[in-house]
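Subject: Sanity check before I submit

Could someone independently write out the structure tokens for this chain? I want to compare against mine line by line before I put it in a report. The sequence has 284 residues.
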Amino acid sequence: MTEHTPEPDDAAARRAMVPVICYPNETLPAPDLALYARAREGAAKIDEVIVPPREAACFRVAAGQFFRITSIDGPQVGDLNLWNANDLGERFYSGKTRALHGTHLTTGERMWSSFPHLRPMATITGDTLGWYGMDEFGGSVHDVIGTRCDPYTGNLLSGAQYHHCCHSNLTRALADEAGISLQEAEGHVHDVLNVFMCTGFTRDTGQYFMKASPVRPGDYLEFFAEIDLLGALSACPGGDCSAEHTSDAAACFPLRVEVFAPQEAALAGWESPPVNGYDGSHGR
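---
Independent answer below. Compare away.
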């Protein structure tokens, strides 16, 4: 049982202090959603990847193209990793994305890359679950708070040796796509965007929770690729995450990834964002 020190006399006053947003985002470079929408209207589908249940698959998207993740056959969540297709050292930074946008992402918000690059990798341009908002439990969809289910935590909590957690799925998929060893691939797998997953923090204990995803077949999350991307998507063994993961108990379904290329000149005036402008001197 956790013991707490006695409350000080001014405890109520300390708790009543008004919060301050850590990273006001009004000055972030805004995506030109109207331009993206016009480019998307005439875009042609050029690729499709089906991610099997409890597995992961990789896909590639060139800068200026769109990719769409769609639920098919049944409610299913997915764990998404993104890398710079030309440099695995530049990858999605979920913590900074969370700090800039909040715990859950939707249309108009971006997936930002790791230091020292810190630039937009992808912009969300379509979200059929945007209506969900925040529910009475504090839950919402498409989170950047969960890390990904993994075999190490499963072993820690239950002694399991389960190999189809999203971490392992993503590791195998990247190793196969990049032609590298599992050990090297694992070092590049990172915290995810939990696509379609409905999550939050409990009000009393502050614990991370999941609940049944509101996703249904036909729902999708669509992105505009700001740079050349290599993506990996895992169809989580938790299915819709209404009960458990790190096992084969949940009903699981495939996910579809489609890539669309705009017509030539549809993005006139658009440029892929440069790497972050910090000079890298760190005061020396």
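---
OP: Matches mine. For the report I'm noting this point. The first strand starts at residue 44 and ends at 51.
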